Model the fold of this input.
Amino acid sequence: MKGTKRAARFALPIALSLGVAMTALTPAIAKDLLTVDLVNEPSSLDPHQQWNPDSYYVYRNIFDNMVTRDDAGEIVPQIATAWQRTSDTETVFTIRDDVTFHDGTPLTPEDVVYTVERITDPDFGSPQLGQFNKIIKAEVTGENQVTLTTDGAYPALLAQLVKLSIVPRHIASTMTSAEFNEAPVGSGPYIFDSWDRGVSVTVTKNEDYWGDIGPFETVVFRGVPDAATRVADLQAGAADLVVTLNTDLAQQVENGGQGKVLTVNTERVAYFAMNSALAPLDQPDLRKAISHAIDREAIVDGLLGGYPQIVDQMLSPAHFGWADGIEGYDYDPEKAQELIAGLETAPDMELGLATSPVFDQRVVQAIQQMLTDVGLNVAIDTTDMATWLKDQQTTPEQAPMLTFSRWSCACQDPDGIMYPLLHSSSNWSRVSDPEIDALLDEARSELDETRRADLYAQINRMALEDADILPLYQAAIIYGAAENLDWQPTSNESLFLNRMSWTE
Amino acid sequence: MSVFLLQRLGQALVAIFGVMTLVFFIQRLTGDPTYLLVPETATQADIEAMRRSLGLDQPLVVQYLNYLWDMLRFDFGTSYVQNVPVTQIIASRLPYTLQLAAGALFVAFVIGLPVGLAMAIWRKHRFTNVLMGIVLGAQSMPTFWSGILMIMVFGVWLGWLPPSGSGSFAHLVMPSIALGLLSMATYARIARSSILDEMSKDYVRSARARGVGTGRLVGKHLIRNSLIPVISISALEISQLLAGAVIVETVFAWPGLGQLTVQSVQSRDFVVVQGIVLLGAFVTISVNLLADILYGVVDPRIRKGGKA
Done:
């Protein structure tokens, strides 16, 4: 009897805590709630403020964008239903007339104009200013019509407008960005519900949405910094979708029997830059030797689980202007050694390879080893990300000798990646080729799409010949998802909830 | 006693000022946060504009004086990244850190003290060596390993507890144990050596000679007298726990100050880091002050100014 009593005394708290645990776990099983594990909570839900995936994963569901990309990557209508270029610098957009913000107010062309003015106002201090400051004027030019004027011909306009979230003028203009961030009001398929600081953001279905809504009543975005914990959440059913897994964890999900791996190649291009302003890298043959010495297949298949796609141009197939048939440097260590043996100045000095913990160190070390194998002396210089960024954005004379990095302009347009990395006027560029500069300038304002794509293909061939920058691969992003979640991730790294559903 | 207290308060203020100054300058040696805040495609002009809006374009001395002036007015600033007042960010995280610290202390105390006591009293027993091994094992396991292990076993395989996050008592169990195991071992060892120390003293021998039983001896005399070192350690442990358990909070996605510290340091959110460090300094100093006062309560010799 005494034994039973004691057992009961122990059993009660255990049962209680189990009960709590069960209630904590059940929401994930209920079909109307979707739980998403991000890395961190969003920095901001004001879509014109912070610019990082954890923020826009969430706010792109609360706000509609001017235009969007479909799952195939084509630019398709969203708030703008049609657009027509009326001159080299002017484009007229037709705005949907059946959209209302979450407070019931209709979305008008004035809201679109206000949105453009807000994000391009230097005093507002948007970190995204550089992506929209080509737009110098926005005005209402007719019923449901907005005309955007750009500073010169600007073919990448639509690609940028994919990210322009429309905010309501009557709310955003009456409060500071910090206040708007506390209670964001948009017109998107999900309504902001609450933000438990440091924990999660909850959004609920917008029943009055003009487009597809998707099946989830409520969606919770949580910050879970440790990737192994995100996988555990997925396997335990506590999360339905988790972001940013590495290949080892993807393997774990695939072998675990619970959950599945979803992957897509993004518009992020990994590259290896060689600084031709500094000896001994001023010798083209050395740069070509390095290009032959790096075994990209080994990196992709051996280290990155075979997910990324090797590229030979500073673009990915997800970009406009991707050209078939451009051949780059094949892996040929003998040729590399021959080229090095034939150099005027032997490269016996130490070559610094700049990196930061943000980058996959396995890849950096593999590259170091591959270059050591052909007789070069490469030293890895690791700094924190802020310092790395500062060291990169400088004159070629002061920049690091070697750099491994990945680039995304979040616009899928070649101007967003090739201009900064190849034009000599850019702080990031290690290339200094007047011909490439002239072609990049021309392509930047070429409105004829075929001609523009040809220009970029030409630039890519020239860049390969210069060998200042070696394209490596199109990076993949890996998600883990519940077995019954149906979703096709897209190259622009967005989590559009209304494109997800449960399978039967 | 009051002179002593005033002295300690003065020292505390000097220490806080020192911490404020140090954290201000050390952070500014670690790189410019502007580069992390703008997209890669930002032009030099965009970067300059961002730097100006954060006030980072001003000379360091001016920035420092502004900072001191703000601190004097209890204005702790606004996060660069989140654009939210630091006090609000810290206030939202602090309750979680307090919960976890309380949970961990509970685990450490409830397991650590009896284990230490047992190891001292039955120090020649074979079982004690096994216990010692377990304690050492608990202390040696890195939390990023033991934490993930617990998550796999109790969260994924058995499904007894939610694998991560916060929001219910069940969420608190695993992080508390993971964090408490470390302090538990410390408590067990300190309690053991402290009690052994006391047991060799004359009054214990006299008490035994008078025929006082082990239970009474331990309960009435030994524990009380062995508590001083335990309290000192508690002061250290509590201030460590309140500063946030960086690894445990990251592994379990527990939204406390430790996790916030890592995120803020990584994004060079100077203002938030300053706020957290200041809070940490304040807590450490106050807890130590409290410990000094508690010594007096437990041991009248200190309270009455006598020599121990």
In short: Residues 67-170 of chain A form a domain with the Dipeptide-binding Protein; domain 1 fold (CATH 3.90.76.10). The first helix of chain A runs from residue 2 to 29. The two ends of chain A are 50 Å apart (CA to CA).
